[in-house]
Amino acid sequence: MNKYNLNNSFKAVVIGGSAGSFQGMVKILSQLPKGFPLPIIMCLHRLKHVRNGFVEALSIKSVVQVTEPHDKENIKKGGVYLAPANYHMSVELGHYFALSTEEMVNNSRPAIDITLSTCGFVYKEKLIGILLSGANRDGAQGMRAIHEKGGLTIVQEPTECMIDTMPKAALAATKIDHVLRVDQIVEFFKELDKQYR
Amino acid sequence: MQDIDIADLKRISELIHQKYNYDFRNYAMSSFKRRVLRIMELKKLTVDTLLKKLTDTPVFINEFLDELTVNVTEMFRDPSFWRVMREEIIPAIMLNHKQFKIWHAGCSSGEEVLTMCIMLKEMGILQDVTLIATDLDVNILERAKTATYPIKNMELNEKNYIRFQGSASSLKDYYREENGNAIFNRELFANVSFRKHDLVLGEIFNKFDLVLCRNVMIYFNQSLQNEVLKKFHESLFKYGYLAIGSKESLIWCDYANRFIVVNNEEKIYKKIKD
Ligand SMILES: C[S@@+](CC[C@H](N)C(=O)[O-])C[C@H]1O[C@@H](n2cnc3c(N)ncnc32)[C@H](O)[C@@H]1O
């Protein structure tokens, strides 16, 4: 069975989230199949001037180590990356990260739109974009960019979200391939993992 | 929002290079692209009209550079960095030199230099230090010289200062409020000279005991970072210090082995080899 009609052509997963996404993110990371083969690139809104603690909190239950990349750090298969506080995080064509302190976008730095759309530009149809719970519209344009480049788009089921503004904004902005609960996203990752075994 | 492809971005950076002698050809592509798109949107230009404007209107270049560069900065950015400066780095420099020189490369609107001056003043040594603050962007340098910031920025600056644990009860001790601005005491800048300098094409112009270049090289690609690090190496006295942004790294640069890491968390390095 292959419920989500997946294959092994994907090269990366990018995930955005804001208010109410932390628990879901922890759940996804804690149930990630061991040795999951794709890089997971996360941009989550966070307190701007608290540099430490967030990675640790995400990593505690996670089966993988979450890291905040340095500027120009190469993206590795199976790496799990989190946009650092107070920096926008882009992905460049050579498959490495670039950080920047540009003005806030959608009142946010890191802005989910920036991470999502640069991933879309680089990975095109080989990208899976996921948007979780959140209280603003950041991420909607990024999801649209991913869809326009041929990538697969998923949002968290709005009725399950603590705050559904973000997934709803994405649903209004572009075609979303799957609307899933967190436990279904967990299942999705397991199925995706199987395609690479 | 319009899009722009890489070939057009290259046409723009080639034109600027040939006509105005600024070299953005090795800037990181993703942010360079966003900056150019932002200018096109702000000025209601297309790629063609932008190229034409850059060709026909030489006075446009300063405004263009001001918008192209990312000038976002804050006082006491990363308070823990400034605590390490105060408690370890500056005292280490002072062990050997009563008077010393600091270079702020890519100083933007001056918050970082002002931070340094306030810290040195609180340490009682401001009069012993010569500071040079440089940037490529002449418009932002003019703003930096005024030591004037919108009052709305002060909330964040003040928060950082509290976490830095400065010796004054508030940054208010250093500025007066006027027309929605915080105007800092100009005496803090008595030993600072602001100069235009381009890290990419500019010459080495002095030797320093401490160089700060934070959140500037993130706009460069790796090969340019590599070149610029060589310039910092040459601009430092042996055993001088280099500080970069908290999320930058030098490990892949050719000259990395001429430095040792003094503080990995705060990204402070020391030159140990010529
Ligand atoms: C984000 S600001 C950094 C301000 C401050 N150092 C900080 O960390 O908050 C980056 C600055 O680097 C300057 N810059 C960019 N390219 C440069 C170059 N080639 N030479 C000198 N300055 C440059 C920009 O004009 C901008 O003011």
From TrEMBL, chain A:
It comes from Chryseosolibacter histidini. The active site is at 18, 45, 138. The keyword Hydrolase applies. GO terms for cellular component: cytoplasm. The keyword Hydrolase applies. Its EC number is 3.1.1.61. Residues 6-185 form the CheB-type methylesterase domain. Pfam families: CheB_methylest (PF01339). It catalyses: [protein]-L-glutamate 5-O-methyl ester + H2O = L-glutamyl-[protein] + methanol + H(+). Keywords: Chemotaxis, Hydrolase. One of its GO terms (biological process) is chemotaxis. This is protein-glutamate methylesterase. It is an enzyme of class 3 (hydrolase). It comes from the Bacteria. One of its GO terms (molecular function) is protein-glutamate methylesterase activity. SUPFAM superfamilies: Methylesterase CheB, C-terminal domain.
UniProtKB/TrEMBL annotation, chain B:
InterPro entries: Bact_Chemotaxis_MeTrfase, CheR_C, CheR_MeTrfase, CheR_N, SAM-dependent_MTases_sf. It holds the Pfam family CheR_N. One of its GO terms (molecular function) is S-adenosylmethionine-dependent methyltransferase activity. Transmembrane segments: none annotated. It comes from the Bacteria. Residues 1-274 form the CheR-type methyltransferase domain. PANTHER family: CHEMOTAXIS PROTEIN (PTHR24422:SF8), CHEMOTAXIS PROTEIN METHYLTRANSFERASE (PTHR24422). This is Protein-glutamate O-methyltransferase CheR. It comes from Chryseosolibacter histidini.
